[in-house]
Each structure stands twice: as C-alpha cells, then as structure tokens.
Amino acid sequence: MAGIPTLVVIADGGTARFFTWPESGGYLAEHKHLRMDVSPAEGERDRTPRVQDSTGHHRHRIERRQSAHQAHEEKFLVEAADRIAALMAEFSATSLVLCAPPKALGSLRVALSKAGKDFKLTTLAKDLTKETPEQLDHRVRRLRALKPAGNWS
Q: What CA–CA distance (Å, rounded) separates 2 from 4?
C-alpha cells in the first residue's frame, strides 16, 4: 500500500504543475496531463480606454484598477485553486505543498481558503516552475525536513 499521497503544486501566474509524493517515501511523480498553462488573452488589449471631453476636442484616459494582464493572471490562479481542491479530493490527499511567487501564493491561498477544504498546508514563496522534477524533489524534501531517498537514475 502506497499510503496517502501529498499533493505538490508548483505554480506562478501562468503555469501550474502538479505532482504527488507518496507518504511511504519514494520520489516526486509529475502528472504532466494535469499541467495548466495560461492561454493568451484573445481580444484583450493593454491600452486603456479613452473618453471624449464634453467641452472641446480633448480625450482622457480611464485608468483601470487592474491591468488586463493582472486580471488574466488572477483568473488563472482561481482556476488553478479549483483544480487543486478537486485533486485533493481525487487523490484523497491530506497534505499540500504549494510553491509559487509571493503574489501568486497569496492569491492561491485566498482562493483555497474559499474552497473550505481542511488539509495540512506547507508553502514556499519562490518561483520553481522551470525546475526539473529531480530539483523539485530535493527542494520538497528539504522543505518538509526529510532525508533524500537516494540517487535519481
């Protein structure tokens, strides 16, 4: 019996990678079919809208509270949090290791708290999306204060 796995999620504003780590030891296993990548926003522009002055020929910018890029990132992180909650249930995981840049980590934590799931959460505020599974395994072991299982082959 492999035991209850820990779900490990490596994310940023545009990518989310999902791994499981068996409770009984072993190595981090990436689930490549679950990977999420942000799609370019269709039809969105970063140019702010303009309005015509009512008296004259002047045009003024309307400042957005959030850029289109930031809004798209935020939407992606909410979708990633929904996927995380679903995978926690699917894998019957009780522990989650979440690694993301500080801003994305905050957004993911808020979205996960809204899901109302109860699990042990370990976080690392760092962008690790470009690291190999071997490097991630080593980092997660250090983060969880476990000894390495041996050499990767």
A: 7
Question: What percent of the residues of the chain are helix, what percent strand, and what percent coil, each to the nearest 5?
Answer: 35, 25, 45
Does this model's pTM top 0.90? My answer is: no
Show the low-confidence residues of the chain (pLDDT under 50): 1, 42-43, 147-153
Closest CA to 87 of 34, 15, 27: 34
pLDDT digits (tens, 9 = 90+) for 7-33: 999 999 889 999 998 877 778 889 999
- Measured in degrees and rounded to the nearest 5, phi and psi for residue 111 equal -65, -40
Query: By C-alpha distance, which of 8, 73, 13, 6 is closest to 34?
Result: 8
Q: Which residues contact 55 (CB under 8 A, 6 or more apart)?
A: none
